[in-house]
Amino acid sequence: METLLENTKKRKGPVLFSEYKQGDAIRKVLKNKREFILQELKTSGLKGRGGAGFPTSTKWMLTATANAEKKYVICNADEGEPGTFKDRVLLLEYPELVFDGMVIAGYTIGAKYGIVYLRGEYGYMLKSLEGFLEQMRKDNLIGKNITGKENFDFDISIRLGSGAYVCGEETALIESLEGYRGEPRNRPPYPVNTGYKGCPTIVNNVETLASVPHIIIKGGEWFKKYGTDKSTGSKLFSVSGDCEKPGVYELPWGTTINELLKIVGAENVKAVQIGGASGVCLPKEQFNRQLAYEDAATGGSVMIFNEKRNMLKVLKNFLEFFVEESCGQCTPCRIGNVRLLEGVEKIEKNEITFAYINSLKELGKTMQVACKCGLGQTSPNSFITILENFKKEIFKYERNGR
Amino acid sequence: MLIMEKNSLSEEIQELVNEYGNDRSALLQILQGIQKKHKYISDFAQQEVARLLDIHPVEVYSVITFYSFLKSKQRGRNIARLCKTISCDLQGREDVEEAIKRELGISFGETTKDNRITLEFTNCLGMCDQGPAMIINERVYTKLDPEKAVKILNAIK
Amino acid sequence: MKETGDEMSYKDNPRIPVSQQQFTVEKPSDITTIGGTVTVHINEKKIKVPFGTTILEACRQNQIHIPTLCHHPDLCIAGNCRICVVDVEGMKTLQASCSYPITSPLKIHTTTPMVRKARRHIIDLLLSEHYGECYSCFRNGNCELQALAKEYGVDGYTFGHITEPKYRVDRSSAAVVRDMSKCVLCKRCVRTCIDLQEVGVLEAIDRGYDTHIGTFLDKPLADVICINCGQCINRCPTAALRANDPSDEIWEAIDDPQKHVVIQTAPSPRAAIGEEFGIEPGHSFTGELNTALRRIGFDRVFDTNFTADLTIIEEGTELLNRLKKLLVDKDTSVKLPQFTSCSPGWVKFIEHFYPEYLDYLSTAKSPQQMFGALIKTFYAKEAGIDPANIVTVALMPCSAKKFECNRPEMVNSGFKDVDYGLTTREMAKMIREAGIYLPEIPRSTFDDPFGDASGAGLIFGATGGVMEAALRTVYELVTGRPVPFENLNISPCRGFDGIKQASVKLTDCKKGYDFLNNVELKFVVAHGTANAKKVMEMLNRGELDDVHFVEIMACPGGCLGGGGQPIPTSLEIRKLRAKAIYEEEANLPIRKSHENPHIKYIYENFLTDGPCGKLSHQLLHTHYTKRGKFIA
Questions:
Q1: Does B82 lie in the same domain as B21?
Q2: ipTM score here?
């Protein structure tokens, strides 16, 4: 396999890339009641690491209290956001964290089945992950009566995706697992009540689940020490683009963009895209902003553009991505993204009026509230922020041309 | 399709159904199994799957056309997908693209005459720190430059 | 067994979105208990609703208007057009009111500036992709997209407008024409075909912007297992789906002095055509229609109920013959129950999905086809006209009849028995073209030699009607007494339950029918092919072993809900049409098929071999084709 991973992990932080022995957290958890886990999670303030930032303890509590025979734990390893590759590192080098996290989740909510939805592009990992699970079964860390605890059965299976970014959305993921087109569902009801096959389900990002064993071992208070008030703990940032040392960095939440740029060795930076294609594009003036849920939120993707890059081309690339990856179910996303892309093409050819650009911006604002799922709701973000923050560069020939 | 081919295909599909189950949630796994072996899911295969899972053939076709990696039409023996998302784009994807097109004599979306390679674009493969990246039949190649990419493609059988 | 056919049966159909399943199941049966109702504020108005009601339902119950597009009362919730979005206080994004269940006290606003802008944008986006040919479109004036654009004051194409059609029109099918350039991807047709009718011909193909509604392998509609029931046409909000309209050719025939153009009209169009002229559903315009047809230029106007009566005699006799074979000859190979065969959608359904059971179908043709055969033989002789110059048109509620009249075996008269099948909507169009306002013209009767038919033929239009008519005749034929139901209204046959089962006991039978003494004549009535499938599965499992007669109509509600009926459709509308049919029938002088004097005339003077005799078999019976499910 040609992927070079030794170079990817650039910075080991205090949480995720710290020492952990497989099985420790499971054993600790099984000695305690479920309420203990929920309490630790609540104290820690862990929020979903996929980008949405929903409090994990709330999600787990809602599912734990739901009354149903079967429940499911789903690990969302459909890492499709452009610029995000942290889950790849976690799954290849720290699978014990992820799977232990799933077992703990299963114990907390009362589930017997765990499913890892691995994106099709990571198919090369399948064999090694399944081998790892097989070893875990032999070590009695998954399967029946885990570590000897009676009546706690939990098994994990891995399902592959087939090349659809929209399946990273939790309800689209569940639809995909059920054998349908990956089209998001109406919510409410949320998967915590009605998820996979109608059963209460939690869908958590790989990194969220990987954080859980550390929190169990070292406690929620310890986790809270890192990061900010509202964004506790540390985060894996996958940095790519125009910088000296692209790779995965574990940094505490609250790090400013300036700090991050210094760490990765980026110079002459014009713009930083925080949050992947569905995130915001920030200009130099805003580099003092913090990376945090309350400020510039991200699922981990940080893309750096230097002075030489053409921001319009970047925007076009993002919109082409969304046009291709939209599931096509709801009107504003399916047609809206195409209209935005056409608008950008018109800007390139200098064939557009400011009035129309404003209509498109209004359309973007509508899409942000009217689309059915996160894809449509966040695809105008890049459009609106790039046109706003890089106005001079994009429209400079319009000013001169007239 | 010959009767013999149809029968062996039916047997294969039956085995997949036995392995993954015969309710709808097994559909994607069964289709992936067929795709892996035959590189595409033929008309006959789609109707067999529909019959064994007790769903309509158009629903199978609908699922296949939704996912980028499932094909309902015959493609080349190997599918090479080049990532076109921004990070790989910034690191020189266009040069690699031109070189590949020149070498194989086809554009992206087409198949070489000897049916050896189909070229496609794909979106972010998760190799953004080591771009440009390409995935050929589940194997990922990173840090490509025009020469390296061409060398890899020529070595594919 | 009470199986509802009028609402989606959630437990049986796993494809109903979970968003609908959960709160529908959890709705408490007694809403007066605590938690049974929730109080919400919609537009500052305080409203109390049962737990789990969607915002849209709550608004509709309280006369608050919310526009919808993908929502349809017959179908499960989709929530994909996003027109019905409303502002729920406390939520960052707008919520689709058609799918958001009320489970807590919410504050909802249905027309904030953000909501209005969102709706306007969505309509603009749809218009930017919709290849509208409004002037020449058959939905001009009755199109939901037009109505939305008007409601939201659209006076320009904010995001442009498509100038070339994106897709080629699929005219392969005799019955349904697909024009995907007009499709707004509401997916109603998909839900109808897969969930409501369980035929499964249409689904969304490809992803994102390339999404389109297509068939298996995007084949032409005629090459897949479409049964032509046209339910998709009735539910499509635009003209993306329409019926194959032959009215131009019919006008040509009418205008041609050489051609003798004859039309037969069915009861369901007569009960519904008023809707095309702005009259609310539930009024029959039989007499007015006859006058209008003559004014348009049809040479003769006949009543399909005549051959409906004929079908009853033929099918009833066939049933008695089968029963005799079983009970007297002890021939256990005889196929019982006998299934009706007058619904061409049902016939194609069984030919595709259950071809091994084709022998259970009655061999009698549908009334339309029987009439075609008789017109070009019996009537041609009586009137002294060369049958080569006769053009038969059938006014039907049905889109599948267009396929049926083109079936290769339907040429028993020596010519194509029925030349054109015309739907109610197309008929209304022709009437309007002739400058006639249907509701206000004088009434007239049907032409001889077929005259006015019995009420038994008329009730064919409603589900259970064929069964009721058959029972009225068979019971009296066998016992010599009228059916033991008040006013001959056999209530177990009536109503909109998906599958109805009942029986009537035959006692004191006449001589020649004593083998039926004390036999409990069991029958089943089903409508909608989803229920037809259930009945066939029952047959598979042997649960219909003691049933004798089954009536199946492919369309929900029976023929009155057919693919050619006025758009829109809903359960209320179908119930009103049924009421109109039963009311019209109750006032008729003759209400049993065998008492129709014209029927007696035809058996004495033309079909002299009697029912199911040689001549009848030649002209009035048919055979079927095993088609199977495999699409080549």
A1: no
A2: 0.94
CB contact under 8 A, B58 and C14: no
Report long-range pairs for C508-511 (Cβ below 8 Å, ≥24 apart): C508/C479, C508/C481, C509/C478, C509/C479, C510/C478, C510/C479, C510/C480
Compare all CA atoms of chain A with the CA of B70 and give the residue at the minimum distance.
A162
Chosen domain end from B16, B45, B66: B66
Q: How many CB atoms lie within 10 A of CB A145?
A: 11
Domain, as residue range, for B28: 2-66
Same domain, B149 and B118: yes
Q: Kindly give the pairing relationship between strand C497-506 and strand C519-527.
A: antiparallel
Of B46, B62, B67, the CB nearest to C203: B62
Which residues numbered 17-76 in A keep a CB inside 8 Å of some CB on B? none
CB A201 within 8 A of CB A71: yes
Q: Is the same domain home to B10 and B61? A: yes
State the alpha helices, DSSP H only, in A182-310. 206-218, 220-224, 257-264
Is B15 a domain residue?
yes
Look-up: residue for tokens 């003209």? Answer: C239
The answer to whether the pTM exceeds 0.80 is yes
- Helix axis angle for A354-370 and A331-348, nearest 10°, is 150
Q: Is A197 on the interface with B (CB under 8 A)?
A: yes
Identify whether residues B49 and B94 lie together within a single domain. no
Task: Kindly state the average pLDDT of the residues B147-151.
Answer: 93
CATH number for the domain harbouring residue B95 = 3.40.30.10
- Whether residue B72 is contained in a domain is answered as no
Per-residue model confidence as pLDDT tens digits over C64-84: 999 999 999 889 888 999 999
B85 and B105 share one domain: yes
Residues of B in contact with C15 (CB under 8 A): none
Residue of chain B whose alpha carbon sits nearest to that of A161: B28
Query: What are B67-96's pLDDT values in tens digits?
Result: 999 999 998 899 999 999 999 999 999 999
Q: Which helix (H) or strand (E) holds B141?
A: strand B139-141
Q: Do A85 and A71 form a contact (C-beta atoms < 8 A)?
A: no
Boundary residue ending a domain (B66, B91, B111):
B66
How far apart, in whole angstroms, are the C-alpha atoms of residue C584 and residue C594? 19
In a domain, B117, yes or no: yes
Question: In C384-423, which residue ranges form alpha helices assigned H by DSSP?
Answer: 400-404
What confidence score (pLDDT) does residue C451 get? 82
Question: Rounded to whole angstroms, how far apart are CA atoms A88 and C79?
Answer: 34
Same domain, B138 and B89: yes
Q: Is residue B17 part of a domain?
A: yes
- How buried is B19 (Cβ within 10 angstroms: 0-12 exposed, 13-18 middle, 19+ buried)? exposed
Q: pLDDT-derived band of residue A24, with 50, 70 and 90 as boundaries?
A: confident
Dump pLDDT digits (tens) for A300-327.
899 999 999 999 999 999 999 999 999 9
Looking at the 3D structure of chain B, how many domains does it have? 2
Whether pLDDT at A5 is above 50: no
Residue A8, pLDDT score: 65
